[in-house]
Design brief:
Blueprint (H helix, E strand, L loop, with lengths): L5 E5 L6 H15 L2 E8 L22 H17 L6 E5 L2 H11 L4 E6 L4 H6 L2 H8 L3 E6 L4
Parallel strand pairs: 1-2, 1-4, 2-3, 4-5
Helix pairs in contact: 3-5
């Protein structure tokens, strides 16, 4: 079996997000793989920008919500020791952007958190479920505990 070479962590800031992040870091360490991370903003308005949907992490903006998101993202990246060149924050539809970056960066494992929904919630879909079904690489869904 070929070892993983590039692990992509999909960050969502859920209560158990750090648990998922530590799993991804552990896997990358075990396989001596590159660890990257992505966070897709779909819950705050996108201001008019000259840089499109990719958010430059090394530039300040006048948007307070965006700066808070960037600070959390950068802090987690520093904590996990993810190289700054391997961090992506974008506006968009999470499942599409995660898959796009995974393909662009030749990721061979995507790590996401999943609540393992049933019934109507499963039919409506989730980011983890969509990534699992459409990614061209392996996907590890870390089971999150429901309260």
């Amino acid at each position: 079996m070929k070892a993983y070479e590039h692990v992509l962590l999909a960050v969502d800031y859920s209560e158990q997000g750090l648990y998922v992040a530590e799993k991804a870091r552990s896997l990358a360490y075990r396989y001596q793989a590159k660890l990257s991370m992505i966070h897709v903003l779909d819950n705050i308005p996108m201001p008019d920008t000259s840089y499109g949907t990719v958010i430059p992490l090394d530039q300040d903006s006048s948007d307070g919500l965006l700066e808070e998101e960037k600070a959390k993202f950068m802090q987690l990246g520093d904590q996990l020791k993810v190289d700054k060149a391997n961090r992506w924050m974008l506006w968009g539809i999470p499942k599409q952007e995660i898959i796009h970056i995974a393909e662009q960066e030749q990721v061979d494992l995507i790590v996401v958190g999943s609540h393992g929904r049933h019934g109507l919630a499963l039919l409506l879909g989730s980011t983890a479920n969509s990534v699992l079904h459409y990614a061209k690489c392996d996907v590890m869904a870390i089971r999150l505990q429901d309260d």
